[in-house]
Design goal:
Blueprint: H1 3-16, E1 23-24, E2 33-34, H2 52-60, H3 63-66, E3 74-75, E4 81-85, E5 89-94, E6 98-103, H4 104-111, E7 129-133, E8 136-142, E9 147-152, E10 156-161, H5 162-170, E11 186-187, E12 193-197, E13 201-205, E14 213-216, H6 217-225, E15 241-243, E16 247-252, E17 255-260, E18 264-269, H7 270-278, E19 294-296, E20 299-304, E21 308-313, E22 317-322, H8 323-331, E23 347-348, E24 355-358, E25 363-368, E26 372-377, H9 378-386, H10 390-393, E27 401-403, E28 406-410, E29 414-419, E30 422-428, H11 429-437, E31 453-454, E32 460-465, E33 468-473, E34 478-483, H12 487-495, H13 501-507, E35 509-513
Antiparallel strand pairs: 1-2, 3-4, 4-5, 5-6, 7-8, 8-9, 9-10, 11-12, 12-13, 13-14, 15-16, 16-17, 17-18, 19-20, 20-21, 21-22, 23-24, 24-25, 25-26, 27-28, 28-29, 29-30, 31-32, 32-33, 33-34, 34-35
Region (Disordered): 495-520
Protein name: LGFP repeat-containing protein
Keywords: Signal
Length: 520
């Protein structure tokens, strides 16, 4: 606040000490209406030269300053006196207050407080003073009805009082962030009041609130485009405030409006705004919103600068996801597609350096830096969870594919197969590498008939196939394979729970070093 503005506020504050605002405004006239004042009548003026108004006129320089008196002095039964002068100056006087002058547009604004008989219920409590905002010239005065009137050549004269004036002064008065008043405090159609200022600022005060709240610039434009207090945003509940990374936000009923230079002003409400706040708001990982809350399917969505989206539906609540996981959801038809709304936030996986988002009990998007975002669902997800999840299988490299008569999903360390009469079977780790080396399902081993099992000796594992078996000994880090030699031998081996290490060593063939054991 400039030194001149500080002096002006101090002068008005001193002049108004102990006074309470007693005015409200009406939308029709923008003129304050005095509350609970007794009627007053004009009294006999008496001798002009004895009047305190005359003495003030003389002290100011008489006609050289104010011009000549243009009408008789008005003396009211309540003791108030005033006179008008040819240079558009008015001097008022009241017992206990004294005589003070004001002029021009300030006098015209005071004129609105006169009744049809020219009776006033308020007097000046300080002389009019000059006050400027940079190159914008103006004046100000204050009155005993709790109002201050500010005039500028650029905007005209307007009154401000009560908690509006207190907030205005606290923010620098005319040289502060709000600038000049450009309207009186007037009734809003939604029931409270509003008042405008030159620096694209408005005050809104809900009926019953102790103070107004301010909003400006692009946030005000967004608020007004949403029909202000009459619209879905409702009344402001806090002042506009600076937010992270040189942005701004303001509280509205049920939410907030956020602004940054890169994203503009966006309105968030309800559970989406709450989720955004819980994730750090503008200073969090999402960044500023790039959209408001919009309808999608049976719910709503909002988008954010850092490739984040927050979805909400009554059935699932509000959840966020980002980046490649967001893109995979979009490519799957979004929340109106097969996945539906997310039922969890985006979280880190247990084990591999991955991320996941759940979609109900039977679907998930899993992402890793080398695998991308893949959907795992239904029996494949059930199998993954039953076997220890991605901590053991690694992240998915693919979604469901077909190989011959079988369907499969490949993970970093294992693959899940089903189809052709088989339930879900996992081939993984050294067993998958050896099986692929021997030709996979089209090789002589064919398809696995069961998951890998513990071997007959400690630290050995075996997996049976249609055409033979694989066995890995992690005591000596060596794997073996063998093929069934006849249908009877195949049947016999398939019905056995294990193939012995001795059998593999004497009858089987070495396949290669054992490097990656199943995590049973």
């Amino acid at each position: 606040m400039s030194r001149r503005a500080v002096s002006l506020v101090a002068a008005i504050a001193a002049a108004t000490a102990g006074l309470l605002p007693i005015v409200t405004s009406t939308a029709a006239s923008a003129a304050p209406v005095v509350q609970q004042q007794a009627p007053v009548m004009r009294a006999q003026a008496g001798v002009w030269e004895d009047s305190p108004v005359y003495k003030k006129w003389v002290a100011l320089g008489g006609a050289a300053f104010a011009g000549d008196k243009v009408h008789e002095e008005v003396v009211q039964e309540d003791g108030i006196r005033y006179a008008k002068f040819s240079k558009n100056v008015v001097i008022t006087w009241k017992e206990g207050v004294g005589a003070f002058w004001f002029s021009g547009a300030v006098a015209a604004r005071w004129q609105l407080w006169l009744d049809t008989n020219g009776v006033t219920k308020t007097v000046a409590i300080m002389d009019q003073v000059q006050t400027n905002r940079g190159s914008q010239l103006g004046v100000a005065s204050a009155f005993d009805n709790g109002n201050s009137v500010y005039y500028s050549d650029a905007y005209g004269a307007f009154a401000i009082s009560g908690t509006n004036r207190a907030k205005y002064w606290a923010n620098g008065s005319i040289t502060g962030r709000f600038g000049w008043p450009t309207s009186d405090e007037v009734m809003h159609t939604a029931g409270g009041t509003h008042q405008s200022f030159s620096e694209a600022v408005s005050f809104f005060k809900k009926a019953g609130d102790e103070q107004p709240y301010w909003i400006s610039g692009a946030l005000r434009d967004q608020y007004n485009s949403d029909h202000g207090p009459n619209g879905p945003a409702g009344w402001l509940w806090r002042d506009q405030a600076e937010a992270a990374n040189n942005g701004w936000s303001v509280g509205i009923t049920g939410g907030n409006i956020y602004w940054s230079a890169a994203t503009g002003a966006q309105r968030l409400t309800g559970d989406i705004d709450l989720k955004y706040y819980q994730q750090g708001g503008p200073g969090g990982h999402a960044g500023y919103p790039t959209s408001g809350v919009t309808a999608v399917g049976a719910g709503t969505v909002a988008t954010f600068k850092n490739a984040v989206e927050i979805y909400h539906s009554p059935a699932t609540g509000a959840h966020w996801l980002s980046g490649a996981l967001r893109d995979r959801l979009r490519n799957a038809g979004g929340v109106t597609g097969s996945l539906g709304f997310p039922t969890s936030d985006q979280f880190a996986t247990n084990g591999p350096n991955g991320l996941y988002v759940l979609f109900g009990p039977n679907k998930v998007i899993l992402w890793g830096p080398s695998t991308g975002a893949q959907i795992v669902g239904d029996q494949y997800l059930a199998k993954l969870r039953a076997d220890g999840d991605v901590y053991y299988y690694g992240l998915p490299n693919t979604e469901i594919r077909q190989i011959g008569p079988y369907n499969f999903q490949e993970f970093q360390d294992a693959s899940i197969f089903d189809g052709n009469g088989r339930s879900t079977i996992t081939i993984g780790w050294d067993f998958r590498a050896g099986w692929w080396q021997l030709g996979g399902y089209s090789g002589q081993l064919g398809m696995a008939t069961s998951d890998v099992q513990f071997g007959s000796e400690p630290n050995t594992f075996v997996q049976l196939f249609d055409g033979g078996y694989l066995l890995c000994d992690y005591n000596e880090n060596q794997c073996y394979y063998d093929y069934w030699t006849s249908s009877s031998a195949q049947h016999q081996a398939a019905s056995q729970p294990k193939v012995t290490l001795e059998q593999a060593k004497t009858e089987g063939t070495k396949l290669g070093a054992a490097k990656s054991a199943p995590r049973k």
